[in-house]
C-alpha cells in the first residue's frame, strides 16, 4: 500500500502484470491535479461520488458507472461528496488495443462515462477478480473481451477477417494436453502458428467459448473424475492445475451454481 499525505487517503497497486496496471484507491477530498496518461484509464467508482473535469465539462461517476478516459486526454479528480470516493482503475496501453483491433481507430467514448451493461460486465472481469494475481490466460481473455466490447460500444463497425479452424483446433489440443500447468495465449499462438488475438477470436467462433474458459472447464472435468476415483478435493484441485481448493471452488460454483461439497453430497444421496 502506498500511503498518501492525508492519513485518510490511500492507493493500492495490484500485483504486476505484463499487460495492464491495476490500482484501488480512496480519496477524502482533492485527489489529483490535471494530468494525462498515454493509456486508457478504465474503472469503476465503488462508493461515494468521483468528480473530475474531462473535455471541458464536469463529470460525476457513481457506483455502477464505467469510466473510460481516452489516452492523452487531460483530467483531474476530487470527491463529489463529503464521504470521499473509493474506486478501482486499470490502465490499458493503446498498443495493446491495436494488437486486437489491427489498425482500426482507437475506440472513443466522448462522455468518458458509460452505463452500458456490456461494458460493465467485461470491465468487472479485470477489476473484481478474487485472485490478487490474474492467471495470464484469464487476463488475456478478459482483455480481448474488454477491447472488442469497447469498440462495439463506441460504435465501431467490425471488419471482416479470415478465420483459421486448424489453428483453433491445434490450440484446443494443446490445452487438453497441458491442463495441469499454467498456459499463456502466447504459447497457444506459437503451437497454432497464429497471432494470439486472431487465435482468441477463432477459438470463440469454433468452440463457443474463450481459451481460458475452455481450460477451466476441462480442469473441472478432471476434478470430478478424480473425486469419483477416490481423491480428496484438495488432491483433485492441485492435480487438475488449480492453485488450491478455494481457487477450484470459485470456478466450480461459477460453472455449476453450487459448491463442490453440495455437488458430491447430492450424488451420494442419489446413489450415483
TrEMBL record:
Keywords: DNA-binding, Transcription, Transcription regulation. It comes from the Bacteria. The keyword Transcription applies. InterPro entries: AraC-bd (IPR003313), AraC_XylS_family_regulators (IPR050204), Homeodomain-like_sf (IPR009057), HTH-like (IPR037923), HTH_AraC (IPR018060). Residues 169-266 form the HTH araC/xylS-type domain. GO terms for molecular function: DNA-binding transcription factor activity; sequence-specific DNA binding. Regulatory protein of the TOL plasmid xyl operons. XylS activates the xylXYZLTEGFJQKIH operon required for the degradation of toluene, m-xylene and p-xylene. This is AraC-like DNA-binding protein. It comes from Pseudomonas duriflava.
